[in-house]
Amino acid sequence: MKFTTTILLSGNNTGIIVPPAVRDALNGGKNPLVVVTLAGHTWRSKVATMGEYLLVGVSAEIRGITGVKGNETHEVELTLDDQPRVVEAPGDLQAALDADPVALAAWNKLAPSHKKAHVTAIEGAKAPETRLRRVQKAIEMLTT
Fold first, then answer.
1. Residues with Cβ within 8 Å of residue 29, at least 6 apart in sequence
2. Which of 18, 31, 41, 144 has the lowest CB atom count within 10 Å?
3. CB crowding 74-83: b at 16 or more within 10 Å, else e
4. 10 beta partners
5. pLDDT tens per residue, range 69-122
6. What domains can you pick out in the chain, each with its CATH number?
């Protein structure tokens, strides 16, 4: 569903204001998972209630890619995202998970966003030693 809306700026945070009629037309419930297209860039997100608004967050990374700023008006397209949210563990993390059934069970219960946070931290390591420490920390967090 395409619509024109304002990009809300609140402090350092920005979000796409979603009219209630648009959210309702998606038939995805109160906080539907969506595929967003803004300024030619597409990503997966979720409609969330923030105070008096229904919003889709626009991260600093996406603002950098699209050139979009707060308080601007843009055409946005939202479609209901019915695909499973899958986060693949990198090989070294997967090996550590496979070696620890408790950690693996905890990993399998994590929300995709929490899995992504672990994967991003591990993949952001520059040195092999740092990466190893981050894998170990993830396993520790999952087992305590």
1. none
2. 144
3. bebebeebee
4. 13
5. 999 999 999 999 999 889 999 999 999 999 999 999 999 999 998 999 999 999
6. 2-80 (2.40.30.100), 91-143 (no CATH)
